[in-house]
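Posting for a labmate who doesn't have an account.
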Amino acid sequence: PCTRGDLFITYSVADGMAAQHPKQSPAGKASRSLAADGRVYFSYAQIAETVSSAVPAVKAFNPDIMVAIGGGGFIPARMLRTEVRVPILAVSLELYDDKTHTANNRVLQKQWFDETPGTFGAMVRGKRVLIVDEVDDTRTTLQFAVEELIRCNGPAEVAVLVVHNKLKPKKGVLPDSVVYIAGEHVPDAWNCYPWDAAAYGRDIRAHEILANECAGEGSSSWLKLGIAASCGALIAAVLCRKMAP
């Protein structure tokens, strides 16, 4: 879904999904269960599917360039670029302190881009810009990013894409002119993303299994992949023996 101000504009993010399994549709994915630690885990495949589901809305906005908010927006922006072939600029903003796992009293700007002629930064002024982040929690970071972009770089139009929008009251406010796109609307829980797996004391494979369990998929898909891979290796070995002189 995509919004401009308070007006909801329905795109084809969920169109044609009626025949799919509930876990494959954006609505079904939003109904995940909590892990034993009270958090919700997401896999790379789940993130990629959600980003891809937002492509029609992004293409309707027709951006000239993307601005990815680091660190959580970097990987979703790169996933999106496979289907929306525009350059990516990176900025780094910090609301949550990685060391204390608490919120700062304001957004800290760690990195921004300049508009040196011949660089991607020079492509922002007067253009259509899509800001990408992984989650809209309090909306404080998004508000800062949008206001800073408009104040410093003068884009013609601005849209925001988040992989997940948490269904909760927001502290930040976006201008009515900003197009808002959310891959999924999710409950207000602690989201754990695959690029942060080590921060939660797990390797990526353990994280992905837990993400599948949160989505109600269990570990059966991994078992099936393992069986398929073993069968493939066995068939290949048999064929090699038959073809050997």
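Reply:
Got it, the structure tokens are right above this. Residues 3 and 16 are 20 Å apart (CA to CA).
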